[in-house]
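About this split. The held-out portion is used to measure sequence recovery: a designer receives only the structure tokens and must propose an amino acid at every position. Recovery is the fraction of positions where the proposal matches the reference. Here is one held-out target exactly as it appears in the evaluation file.
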């Protein structure tokens, strides 16, 4: 089982790359995490955001595989505790499917991505900066795995 994080945004600051890298390298071989950066849609003063969101959706859909279990990160999703996330990791592993965690751009996810989701997860009711979401997501996946594996990190 592989965890793939498809996130809109490129050229993250060094501190983001370093933070994400730290947690990605801690994940076990049987549950690797891969970040896939999606180029943002074109935005300008006079452009309609729907067009940019659709461009991002096209790019995200092109990276999805038919068999992927799709989980969207959305403000309207359900809040999961670390224990719930750990339970989900265990369920996903049992299913044997790769999981695609979808992180939208500054204006959210394309409705086609939300429609493809089997689960919707809200990291927080707060609006978080996209670079920080990547680190929080990577750390929470590692924490959930550590709980599942009985590793002392979670304590």
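Reference sequence for scoring:
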């Amino acid at each position: 089982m592989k965890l793939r994080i498809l996130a809109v945004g490129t050229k993250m600051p060094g501190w983001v790359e370093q933070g994400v890298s730290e947690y990605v390298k801690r994940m076990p071989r049987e549950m690797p995490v891969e970040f896939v950066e999606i180029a943002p849609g074109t935005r300008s003063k006079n452009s309609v955001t729907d067009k940019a969101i659709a461009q991002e959706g096209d790019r995200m859909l092109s990276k999805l595989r038919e068999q992927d279990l799709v989980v969207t990160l959305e403000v309207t999703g359900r809040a999961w505790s670390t224990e719930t996330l750990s339970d989900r990791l265990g369920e996903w592993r049992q299913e044997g499917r790769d999981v695609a965690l979808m992180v939208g751009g500054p204006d959210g996810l394309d409705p086609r991505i939300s429609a493809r989701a089997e689960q919707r997860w809200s990291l927080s009711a707060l609006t978080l900066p996209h670079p920080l979401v990547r680190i929080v997501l990577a750390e929470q996946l590692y924490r959930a795995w550590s709980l599942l594996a009985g590793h002392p990190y979670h304590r």
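Annotator remark: The CA atoms of residues 9 and 153 lie 30 Å apart.
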